[in-house]
UniProtKB/TrEMBL annotation:
It comes from Paracoccus niistensis. Gene3D superfamilies: Phosphate transport system protein phou homolog 2, domain 2. Belongs to the PhoU family. InterPro entries: PhoU, PhoU-like_sf, PhoU_dom. It is found in: Cytoplasm. The lineage of its organism: Bacteria, Pseudomonadati, Pseudomonadota, Alphaproteobacteria, Rhodobacterales. Keywords: Cytoplasm, Phosphate transport, Transport. Plays a role in the regulation of phosphate uptake. It comes from the Bacteria. Homodimer. Residues 23-110, 126-211 form the PhoU domain. This is Phosphate-specific transport system accessory protein PhoU. PANTHER family: PHOSPHATE-SPECIFIC TRANSPORT SYSTEM ACCESSORY PROTEIN PHOU.
Length: 239
């Protein structure tokens, strides 16, 4: 009995350490979203470059989480419920890394956009959309820490709002391009940025779904609430 308690406490201690790494990673990703959006709106190339530079630390943390989780599985041989917890942190870390890649991509396009004409209103609209996604991500991580299924479900429902914001922006970009062909290149860059932010929302939703899996033992079986997204090439992260 005492030996079992010792093993259990060792597992809990190791898992808490990994979860702390994930939460730290989440804080870095939240900052990357906010700073990338601010750099875009203000055309701050130095801030955009800082976002790109810090992405390496996010990538390194994901590697660290994966290594720690693999070591925990090997050493502690967790049972089904505990294994579910370990696998969830791996998937959450992967989602956070992808969001960090999208923030880095926004920063890359910010440097290009700084040399192009300003498209009125779009910087603020994209920053508002990014702020919505940042809030989703923060709540998804909070729901994980608190094992709050209701908050996770709320995050999942809010993905619809992000889709609607993306669709509205897409129509706005089309209008600017039709009104003046000189806006085409800038609007194409802005569209890819909007799509990056929309994909960030998808990954925040994936984290919320992992929380529901941890709490209930099952992934949601109903389709995610989605807007009628326009068809366009989805930019790959990390490019």
């Amino acid at each position: 009995m005492n030996r079992d308690k010792h093993i259990l406490s060792a597992f809990d201690r190791d898992l808490e350490s990994i979860q702390a790494e994930v939460i730290r990673m989440g804080g870095m990703v939240e900052a990357a979203i906010e700073e990338a959006a601010r750099a875009l709106e203000t055309r701050d190339e130095e801030l955009a470059e800082e976002v790109r530079r810090r992405d390496r630390a996010i990538d390194q943390l994901e590697v660290q989480v994966n290594e720690s989780a693999a070591r925990l599985i090997a050493l502690r041989a967790p049972t089904a419920t505990d294994l579910r917890l370990v696998l969830s942190v791996i998937k959450i870390a992967a989602a956070l890394e992808r969001v960090g890649d999208y923030a880095k991509n926004i920063a890359k396009r910010t440097n290009q956009l700084s040399q192009m004409p300003v498209i009125p209103g779009t910087g603020l609209a994209l920053r508002r959309m990014a702020s919505t996604v940042e809030g989703m991500l923060r709540d998804a991580l909070d729901s994980y820490v608190q094992r709050d299924a209701a908050l996770a479900a709320d995050v999942r429902a809010r993905d619809l709002e992000v889709d609607q914001m993306y669709n509205a922006l897409f129509r706005e970009f089309l209008t600017h391009m039709m009104e003046d062909p000189r806006n085409i290149t800038a609007c194409m860059h802005l569209h890819f940025i909007a799509k990056n932010v929309e994909r960030m929302g998808d990954h925040a939703t994936s984290i919320a779904e992992q929380v529901l899996y941890v709490v209930t033992g099952e992934l949601p079986d109903d389709p995610r609430p989605k807007g009628n997204s326009v068809l366009f090439v989805d930019p790959a992260p990390g490019g």
